[in-house]
Amino acid sequence: MAMEITQFLLAAQSPDANIRTQAEASLRQFQEQNLPLFLLSLSVELANNEKPLESRRLAGIVLKNSLDAKDSVRKEHLVQQWMAIEISMKAQIKDLLLRTLGSSASEARHTSAQVIAKVASIEIPRKQWPELIGSLLKNMTQQENPAALKQATLETLGYVCEEISHQDLVQDEVNSVLTAVVQGMNLAEHSREVRLAATKALYNALDFAQTNFENDMERNFIMKVVCETAISKEADIRQAAFECLVSIASTYYDVLEPYMQTLFQLTSNAVKGDEESVALQAIEFWSSICDEEIELQEYGTVEGGDSGSTHSRFIEKALPYLVPLLLDTLLKQEEDQDQDDSIWNISMAGGTCLGLVARTVGDSVVKLVMPFVEGNILKPDWHCREAATYAFGSILEGPSIETLGPLVSNGLDLLLNAMRDENNHVKDTTAWALSRIFEFLHCPASGFSVVSPENLQRIVTVLLESINDAPNVSEKVCGAIYYLAQGYEDAGANSSHLTQYIPTIISELLKTAERTDGSDSKIRTSAYETLNETLELQIFSSDDREKQGDLQASLCAVIQVIIQKLSSTDETKPSILQAADPIMFLFLRVFACRRSTVHEEAMLAIGALAHASGPEFEKYMPELYKYLEMGLQNFEEYEVCGITVGVIGDICRALEDKVLPYCDGIMNHLVRNLQSAELHRSVKPPIFACFGDIALAIGEQFSKYIEPTVAMMRSAAEVCAQMDNSDEELMDYGNQLKRSIFEAYSGILQGFKDSKPELMLPHAGHLFQFIEVVFREKYRDESVTKAAVAVMGDLADALGPNTKILFKDNAFCVQFLGECLQSDDENLKETANWTQVMIARVVS
């Protein structure tokens, strides 16, 4: 019997914080105490048309979040929770969800469709809920069913196809789904809402249609319906139809030949005159064709060969018509597109597609593009100048050096002059085009470069002048300098041409990295990456890289000691904080070196800097995080992995809850590392200790990780209990593992102490069992003893009176404490005294 939760759901949305907090706590308590009944109650709320829309909306959101999560660890936990619910209870919930598809409230129907798909993603791969597809198809075949139910059903079918694999359905089910979806797209029979839902559902179902696309008649029918839908009078339906065509282009390239003339006409008309959302998809169709043909060329598949798809050369055949179409789009810029990286418009899409065309056909594109460039590059209208520059920059990858070399050499001076253009858009695109020139046409080591000793000074002068321009231009200029420097790698004596300019370049890049007029950290990141490349040029030019690596490692170690010494007193600590930015920049540079010993020393020094900087270290995390991920994934050089785990602990202690944005990613890596048989076992104990550091840093926010984390700690504890203590090496590893498990429990208990200590109550009994196992060991390491006694105190401190019975039932605790209080180790005695006080508070 479901519980009445309407008032709690409404109160949880109250503007009054006190009312809201109390309601959220009540819902959370209900969820933790009886999850099956909680989910059933939410389903009843969502299905009931008489309930307020606000409570039904929140019920749907909570239902969905109870079945799925972005974090893979959390997601697996939710899956296991659902699988543990009784079949009869799950059947009631699923029945309510299916009934909600016929609700009078569109929001309830939409939410129910999403939740059904989440349940399907869990059950269908496990061969459960076999009747789902049949139930949904029945909604479509009964003529008397209202349009709203059919629309919601099609939406559900689309979501289900998105969530599961094509291997999860038998072909008869696939045929039935496709039939229902394609019939739903029929203009004569269905409303706009139904046709839109059907078209979107087809997009998600296309991966399931491999067998159908192999059949000429079925494929022809599907293509006919999609093409007809692409000229519907409603723009959103046309957009959805073109999205289907984009997917078909990449999934079923082999069978497109008979339809290409029609598809060119459709896409051409859309690009020329349709709404931008539709035109963007029409351009994307040709970009997808390019992607397929580039892949075919790179893998060397020959036409008619057995090794893969047939290369139909669609781009080559359409080239005389496609290139002018794309060039026209370049003139449709938006006034502020250079200021916002999130903008994606027809001009950008056209330029991107033109670049893919150039990679696909090579030299053939140049003669079609250059008249447009030459005709627009000097026009008074900035739109023309920018479009010409964009077109030129777009074709620099693909055509041969022999074809492009003379054109770029002749046009380089014009582009350098354009860096002083009065229009910001033109300068932005020009800087990007220069970076492309240096990336693809500047490689002295291979014998060709458009950069010569004669023009290098002018190039550097213009770039360093332009780096002080608007933030978006400055960022692109950093990219140009990056590729200019990169081109001199392994260039031998030729690299000396740039050497005289490096001090000035470094100085300007450092100033750029400190700019505060950008809207985000992109300038800073770009400047640092370019600095790294410029400085690395000196290393790549050296014949003694081995010594260079040793020197870097030694310097990192020295800096680590200096940081630790100077940060240990209030008088000298400010000197470290003042120098933290350049020090951190140098550490990040060191990761460009490919030697593990250098990475180890850099990581250790970063840990020291995090400890010294405290919460201020947060500003380095966006750039550092990728190196932390690389370290966690470095199984081969496992020492680096282990040190990275330790540094994450340092960072957690420094940042506390400011580390929260990075915790999902970190926890995913740590859990995967524990599960991996490839990672050296020595790294695994520090991972458990790191769990404690993270929990202590983020407090109650650790609750979403608690179930999988404790499950792994229990498994590790069982391994410890079964270990062969006659093997000295294995015994040493076992001691490390035990100590780390106890440290993890301590961190988690203290992290939850002030907010959610009750979350650890279900695990207290097992922890006592593990402590007793350790207590009764004949040979026990003193560090393990101390960790075990400390966690007993943390249990009493965090869980309070809830542990009274546990302490009274486990008489060994008194004996264990008595033993520790007799120890000669003062630290152990101090810990035992504290634990004794904590336990006394509980049991008295």
UniProtKB/TrEMBL annotation:
Q: Which GO terms describe its cellular component?
A: cytoplasm
Q: Report the principal subcellular site.
A: cytoplasm
Please state every residue range assigned to the domain named Importin N-terminal.
Answer: 23-103
Q: Where in the cell is it found?
A: Cytoplasm; Nucleus
Q: Which GO terms describe its biological process?
A: protein import into nucleus
- MF terms (GO), sorted A to Z: small GTPase binding
Instruction: Please give one Pfam family short name.
Output: TPR_IMB1
Q: Which SMART domains did the record assign? A: IBN_N (SM00913)
InterPro entries for the chain: ARM-like, ARM-type_fold, IMB1_TNPO1-like_TPR, Importin-beta_N, Importin_beta, TPR_IPO4/5
Q: Which UniProt keywords apply?
A: Cytoplasm, Nucleus, Protein transport, Repeat, Transport
Tree of life domain:
Eukaryota
What's the protein here called?
Answer: Importin N-terminal domain-containing protein
What is the species of this protein?
A: Salix viminalis (Common osier)
